[in-house]
Design goal:
alpha+beta; STM4215-like; 5-stranded mixed beta sheet; about 35% strand
Length: about 140
Amino acid sequence: MSQIIDIAAAVATELNSQIFSQAFVAQRVYWTTQRLELLTGMRVVIVPAAYERQQLSRSGKEQKDFTIDVAIQKKVANTLTEMDLLMDLVEEIHDYLNDAELIAYPTARIIEVANDPIYSEDHVKQFKVFTSLLVCSYRVLT
């Protein structure tokens, strides 16, 4: 399998091995959105998003950077308390991924975890779905 798929799978495995304030099962997929009007419950998806390779030396050393998106989605009634709890969950996942070693892919080192968008106002307004995206950058040196 390709490295980016292996890293995405390792992120899903890592999230599924932990207990967070709200229960979910992370799944590796190839898209972050589905028909939002059909969404029920919590959905956490892991998506391979980008890959960049840079030659570091003439001897063949390389730096490979992989971007993995983690989308957190849940149907909401749009109450302040409900949205606050989901923002808390996003922050928990963010902080965990920022510090976690990927047991299933230990050569991938986290560079950055960005939360962009923090949540999609359009998804809440149009579909009553909270959507937040964590953009995780991992580096592998070879």
